[in-house]
Design brief:
247 residues; alpha/beta; Rossmann fold; six-stranded mixed sheet; three-stranded antiparallel sheet; 9 strands; 38% helix; binds adenosine-5'-triphosphate; ATP hydrolysis activity; P-loop_NTPase; nucleotide-binding; ABC_transporter-like_ATP-bd; ATP-binding
Length: 247
Amino acid sequence: MPVIEARALTKVYRTGLLRKKRRALDTLNLKVEAGEIFALVGPNGAGKTTFVKLALGLLFPTSGEVLLNGRPPTVPETRASVGFLPERFSVPGYLKAEQVLRFFGELSGLRGRRLQQRIDAVLEWVDLRAERRTPVKAFSRGMLQRLGLAQALLHDPDLLILDEPTGGLDPIARHGFRALIRRLNEAGKTIFLNTHLIDEVARMAHRVGILNKGRLIQVGSVATLLQDADDLETVIVRLLHRHADIL
Ligand SMILES: Nc1ncnc2c1ncn2[C@@H]1O[C@H](COP(=O)(O)OP(=O)(O)OP(=O)(O)O)[C@@H](O)[C@H]1O
């Protein structure tokens, strides 16, 4: 069973006084299998964040559906199996790293010794054990993003959904963050990420979906996409140009 399955998923927003329609996702069909690192790429406004919000049950589709492990995103069992890292993880600066994790852990129903064990384990994963009592206002952007990932891992989910996970990080922090995601994948986590950094995709993903104006215009392995050109950026830009004529 796919970890994420979208069936004819469509989202139409209505904006302004005239309630003008904006089709952010259009009959999207997609399957993400267990154990994959899947990247959804596309230009600004393609619909990537809308897809993530639908998959997390934060928005409802206009038509079609998205299922996680065969279930709607809103059921508690599904929520317990998904970890989410938003594009810019942000928490009050006076909180210490450990307090942040305690707060999020309690929100997901963890208590007592189990919560402490999970906090220790995730701090180890993201290499922030030494900073557990540091207020997050002293954290660099990279450290904050790693704390965000620790938060997403607290309840030991099978699926991690990462929205532009390395946007705003410097090259060294980005490199470290990618290595961390690969290690989590090797440890069995399915990873779904949203990005417009093509370099990111080439370095990390097993499969890629290319989204443009709410439509999935191509899905394939990085190796397959690279059959058409030497670098992924050229392939993706060519595909986007080709589809710009049609859409
Ligand atoms: N709440 C909203 N109300 C109305 N329109 C919206 C809303 N959210 C997004 N949109 C529109 O839907 C389309 C898709 O937006 P979305 O944020 O999903 O794209 P994206 O691929 O994540 O873009 P970016 O890379 O810039 O974050 C855009 O045209 C956007 O303006």
